[in-house]
Design a protein that fits this description.
Elements (H helix, E strand, L loop, with lengths): L5 H14 L10 H21 L9 H40 L5 E5 L2 E4 L5 E7 L6 E6 L5 E6 L6 E7 L12 E11 L2 E5 L1 E11 L7 E4 L3 E4 L3 E4 L2
Antiparallel strand pairs: 1-9, 1-12, 2-7, 3-6, 3-9, 4-5, 4-7, 7-8, 9-10, 10-11
Helix pairs in contact: 1-2, 2-3
Length: 232
Amino acid sequence: MTTTNTDNQVGSGYLESLQKPASKNNGSTGQAGSALGKDAFLQLLVTQMKNQNPLDPQDNGEFVAQLAQFSSLEGIQSLKESVDGILTGIGSSQALQATSLVGRSVIVASDKAVVDTTKSFNGQVVVPSNITEGKVTIKDKDGNVVKTIGLGAQKAGTADFIWDGKNEKGEAVDPGTYTFSAETKVDGKAKTLATLLPAKVNSVSFQNGSEMMLDLAGIGKVGISKVTTIGI
């Protein structure tokens, strides 16, 4: 007598239908798809056991492989959810830390700074290699030179400078926004050097997928990665 394994064919057909990817026209979300996968897994387990032909049962190895496949997919989904949760937590932590910067002073690469000329102003110049001379030129909002500060010989690194808030005549100037430029000479030719200046953080802005931005007094918006030092 010939036995046709119709029950096993039903089980296999059901398995294939579960393994086929959802139609592109299906409006289900990724989360719904994940939930369906869990339910389908249980239905598959019960259906295959109910429809096995006693004379020709499904191979154990094949069934175990199917279980492993579904388990792997479930594991990947769980891992993704865990990673998403971790990234969300990190983003929240960074946002909280960034808001604590409001009202504080930071050091950032810039050529402008709001200066309270009633007290000493401290800045830095980035020196890429040893120099024998250098200078910092300070200009007011109208572009007039207010003061020139000599740097002298400097080793590679950063060179500090201090401005007392006075002009070349020794007269106190008004508080406000000033422009700083630094330069040295290499083989007799002028070479511009970057300046690191303090600025007060007015506010912090956030945008998904983008770097947090600091709104700095006298400078404007600057990425938090541009900050070299956080002051008080």
